[in-house]
Amino acid sequence: MKLFKKITFTALAAVFAVTASFAGAASAAGSLSGKITVNGSTALLPLTLQAAKEFQRMNPKVRIAASGKGSVTGPQAVKKGIADIGACDWDASIDVPGFKAFSGQVANKVAVIPFATIVNKNVGVDNLTTDQLKGIFSGKITNWKQVGGADADIVVITRAFGSGTRVNYQAKALAGGDIVKKEKNYKEVGSSGDMKTAVGTTPNAIGYIDLVYVSGDVKAVKFNGVAATSDNVINGSYKIWAYGYYMTKGQPTGAVKAFIDYVQSKKFQQGSLKKLKFIPISAMK
Amino acid sequence: MAQQSYEPNPVVQSIRTKAVSGRRHLRHLLANTVARYYFLFSILALCFVLALVILFIGKTALLLFGQVTPAQFFLSFDWTPEEDRFGAAAFILNTLSLTALTLLISVPVSVGMAVLTAEIAPAWLKRLIRPILDLLVGIPSIVYGYLGLTVLLPLLRRASGEGLGDGLLAAALVLALMVLPTIARISDDAITAVPRKYRDAAYALGSTRLQVIMRVVLPAAGRGILTAVILGMTRAIGETMAVVMVIGNTPQLAKTLFTPASVLTSNIVMQISNVEFDSTWNYALHMMAFLLLLISFLLILIVRFLGRKRREG
To answer: What is the superkingdom listed in this entry's lineage (chain A) (predicted)?
Structure first.
């Protein structure tokens, strides 16, 4: 019993000592303090996590908690007051197909996200036009030979309704056209990872994904004759891209503003953000 | 009293001596009380969590019927939430047919395996098979799902000539593999528990081994096997991750084995992260979860009922 008490006491003492030393270190630098909660898009999560790490190193009194789910949960969490920042793949302060505007929220651009149309490696087609894509995703074009490929059924893989990738792809690549479900050769997936696996393992499949995910088993096809590359996004010739936004309730203030400023700063945009394969917002005209 | 004529029992005497010591007595009393409250607390904590689950899912779910009629929800096949059409009939029917198909595939095989391990296999093989089955029960479902996606689907595509391969058949095959060890192990125990004298009597009457198994052992173990089947069924109904990877996730009735479709679980997991908190769509998904809860509850009641009957029999 006595031994046990001793051990408990020692452990408690150690915990206090460690906490105290951390607190001491924290008060040494940085004038900003507070807690920032970021919810929303998984596509922007790697960017948020990296920025949070760097920002907290400079401002040790600020704590940033970030988590990712569907894009729409970002502005929702801000509306409910659960989060200070809602990461979203579209501008949630205006109406988009399927989702109403979140009034009173301010959209802060933080990155440019390029998307690509992808096909299984066995597909011979390497360029598709807006009209061809509209035909394919609305179910009017069902065979690859109709768009210059081999005689094989087209297998459509799409993200579930409400996905930020889907919202942007429909708006930019399909010019607002619908994605229509079919009785066969049609499948919905829940994440970018699943999209890549499904298109990669299904012959004759077509889908769409964030450009950063394109590698290995899937092939990015040209859009209206333009290859899906960061350079083509920047020079304006490749059109399937969107801004990633941090939604805030009104104009950001205090630590939240400082954090968003940091994410938008040249240092972060040209450094870590580029390394994560996003495109700096300043690159777009 | 009769006790007086015996020699004092040393154990009884030592207990008495202890009881005489007041501090010890007090300590035992305290320990008993503390233990009682601890056990009470444990069970109350469980009840509390269960009540919370039912309350919160149920509460959100029932909000649905303020905006959608039960008739539409249960009878309509049109699930187009973006245009406010919430018919869940396709999901309910798909869930039931997927479960039925799964059992159709897994029950004969797993009962066969149980007969092998309990009746036919030599002791060393039993010692090998049982731990392997136990291990299979513990494999995370996402692993089965991934195998289904990368191994089973290409095979189905080649065999059927379909472009995609996703659908009820693929999901049922993956689920059958998942519930197989559960059903086999519990059936195995049920068969092993059949008294030896039944078999001896049957052999004495000149039965062959097949006759003994089919006409004596299996009927005698019948209720135990049924319990195993129902437990497998609850696992199949509630399974999500493995199903979502191979079923195609398209909200429509599965008219063929290869129609990309969606069941209650897979639809919930696909859509829950993309819906707004206070929307009819969210309530509809909660209602689907509540429905699953009710179905499992019903099945567990059946298991308990059968178990009681068996003890009486």
So the answer is: Bacteria
**The tokens of A217 are what?**
């088993």
Q: Which residues of B touch A194 (CB under 8 A)?
A: 245
User: What confidence tens digit (pLDDT) does each residue in B234-282 have?
Assistant: 889 989 989 999 999 999 999 899 999 999 999 999 888 778 778 888 9
pLDDT at A6: 54
For residues B108 and B55, membership in a common domain is answered with no
Task: With respect to residue B2, please indicate whether it lies within any of the assigned structural domains.
Answer: no
For the record, the structure tokens of A118 come out as 């992808």
B228 and B251 together in one domain? yes
Q: Do A70 and B248 touch (CB under 8 A)?
A: no
In chain A, positions 190-249, which contact chain B (CB-CB < 8 Å)? 190, 194, 197-198, 201-204
B244–A190 CB contact, under 8 Å: yes
Q: What is the pLDDT of residue B210?
A: 92
B-chain CB neighbours of A152 within 8 Å are 163
Q: Which residue of B has its CA nearest to A187?
A: B248
**H helical segments located in chain A:** 2-28, 45-58, 73-80, 130-137, 164-172, 192-201, 230-234, 254-264, 266-270, 272-275
ipTM of the complex: 0.75
Phi, psi values for residue B197, rounded to 5°: -65, -30
Q: Going from the N-terminus, what domains does chain A have, and what CATH number goes with each?
A: 34-113+243-283 (3.40.190.10), 114-235 (3.40.190.10)
This prediction has a pTM of: 0.79
Mapped onto helix, strand or coil, the DSSP state of residue A207 is: strand
Q: Quote the tokens at residue A61.
A: 């009194």
Residues B21-77: pLDDT tens digits? 678 889 999 999 999 999 999 999 999 998 999 999 999 999 999 899 999 999 999
How far CA A91 is from CA of A95, A105, A177, A191, in Å, comes to 8, 10, 19, 20
* Residue of B152, B168, B274, B276 for testing the chain A interface, max A β-carbons within 10 Å: B274
Residue B3 lies in a domain: no
Q: How far apart are CA B313 and CA B293, in angstroms?
A: 30
Closest-CA distance, A202 to chain B, in angstroms, reads 7
Residues of A in contact with B165 (CB under 8 A): 202
